[in-house]
Amino acid sequence: MTQDLVPITVATGDGIGPSIMQSTLHILEAAGARIAPEYIDIGEKVYLSGQTNGIDSAAWESLRRTKVFLKAPITTPQGGGYKSLNVSMRKALGLYANVRPCIAYAPFVNTKHPDMNLVIIRENEEDLYAGIEHRQTEEVYQCLKLITRPGCERIVRYAFEYARQQGRKRVTCMIKDNIMKFTDGLFHKVFKEIGADYPDIEQDSMIIDIGAARIADTPEAFDVVVMPNLYGDIVSDIAAQIAGSVGMAGSANIGSQCAMFEAIHGSAPDLAGQNIANPSGLIHGAIQMLIHIGQGDIAQKIHNAWLCTLEDGIHTADVYKEGISKTKVGTDEFADAVIARLGRLPQQLPAVNYEGSNPLNLPHPIRKAPANKTLVGIDIFLQWQEGDPSQLGNKLYSLGRSNVELQVITNRGVKVWPQGLPETFCTDHWRCRFVAPNNNLDFAEVLALQTRLHDAGFDVVKTENLYTFDGEPGYAAVHG
Ligand code: NAD
């Protein structure tokens, strides 16, 4: 009955998108998915019509109404001016959690890691993806890495709740907090805080570089892995590829109100129009969507039929291997093979069971009471060409006053005054830290200092206030 159908927004995408979407919808229909798709145009056509973000207002309207989006990959045209539609959608719709299961299907799909079965939970909105970039001087460009406490709390809690719901045993946090003590340090701290609410789940942390190396080498040692946006982006592609094929993995982008489901791969223009792409990534996105809308029964039926298809050696070209596979099929025929197996259970690969699976219902992060915030200094960034740090130090020192004194100058984070090393390479970008000796700086002093700098001919390109929060410094110390 029409009223039982769940409206979903569907974009057929570019390149192989229309073909894999048609196959996926064909399977959903045959399996009895109770959905009412409504179609929107996004991607290349919209970009080239002059819409630089690749989406128009009618599409937004549908997305905000249905709150469920099944999306085929799109092509971002080459060249400047086009914004990433994926990044815009994740941020505009608040899709904070990107869930990417990466599973091996040995012995039916060739992989060096037959026991691999891990899920990457990637923070989806923050980090270096804020798109806040500036050129500050002739030589120096900057990208802001933003990590927030509510953002960390949401993604970390999501990872633990996901692990508990899916019967997984361990959550590993990957960060680089030996270097980024404030941003990645916060992610790690929140992981430990929230982890205390989940004593039933094992938990550990790794620095991202060795963590990524271990995932590439022994992925079977991992279960659920949670990480900030950029690391998750890179590591989840590696994990999907070593599981068998980048064409097999699906992804869910989950927010508190909306959710988007897709394949992890792109529009593969090299395969477009040939009926040879693997539709499995999008099928897996659709399976996650069905679970999300409370149709775990249909998700389970499709997933088990898909496993049977793999077991029967019916493979698309990307995973086809002589000696392992039996029949090489195209996109449409693969979908037909899945449909023919609806209702069957796999014999060797473990069958899935999604009965009673529901979307995770997470509490909103509770805002902490504000800390006692005190201005204690300021980092002033200058463009300055001359090059001798002691000359700069002496000039700036003379512009200080008893209540705001020059403490240190760094270049690319390395101390160059006082007592820098002549070997240190310097650019035209100088961070000059002024502090209040009594640890309490009146902002009027900051303005007066900036005026003195300006009057003395200095080019101030940026300032960053130094605060303490309940007495704890809210800024990194200078080393060297
Ligand atoms: P891609 O993922 O499209 O292709 C990478 C390689 O994997 C290619 O060799 C391709 O043939 C193969 N491949 C991908 N999907 C496959 C499938 N289903 N079956 C078999 N083989 C498959 O990455 P790319 O070539 O870097 O990007 C192509 C376009 O896709 C670009 O315009 C990019 O911006 C876009 N893109 C879109 C998304 C998205 O919409 N979510 C994600 C990534 C890239």
From TrEMBL:
Sorted alphabetically, the Gene Ontology BP terms of this entry are: glyoxylate cycle; isocitrate metabolic process; tricarboxylic acid cycle
Stored Pfam families: Iso_dh, Isocitrate_DH_C_bact
Reactions listed under catalytic activity: D-threo-isocitrate + NADP(+) = 2-oxoglutarate + CO2 + NADPH
**InterPro entries, alphabetically?**
IsoCit/isopropylmalate_DH_CS, Isocitrate_DH_bac-typ, Isocitrate_DH_TT1725_C, Isocitrate_DH_TT1725_C_sf, IsoPropMal-DH-like_dom
Q: Which cofactor does it need?
A: Mn(2+); Mg(2+)
Q: Does the keyword Oxidoreductase apply?
A: yes
Keywords assigned by UniProt? Glyoxylate bypass, Magnesium, Manganese, Metal-binding, NADP, Oxidoreductase, Tricarboxylic acid cycle
Task: List the Gene Ontology MF annotations in alphabetical order.
Answer: isocitrate dehydrogenase (NAD+) activity; isocitrate dehydrogenase (NADP+) activity; magnesium ion binding; NAD binding
Where does the Isopropylmalate dehydrogenase-like domain start and stop, copy by copy? 7-338
Q: Which SMART domains match?
A: Iso_dh
In short, the EC number is 1.1.1.42
Q: What's the stated role of this polypeptide?
A: Catalyzes the oxidative decarboxylation of isocitrate to 2-oxoglutarate and carbon dioxide with the concomitant reduction of NADP(+).
**What's the family?**
Belongs to the isocitrate and isopropylmalate dehydrogenases family.
Q: What is the annotated quaternary arrangement, including any partners?
A: Homodimer.
Specify the protein name. Answer: Isocitrate dehydrogenase [NADP]
Q: Which organism is it from?
A: Alteromonas sediminis
> What is the taxonomic lineage of the source species?
Bacteria, Pseudomonadati, Pseudomonadota, Gammaproteobacteria, Alteromonadales
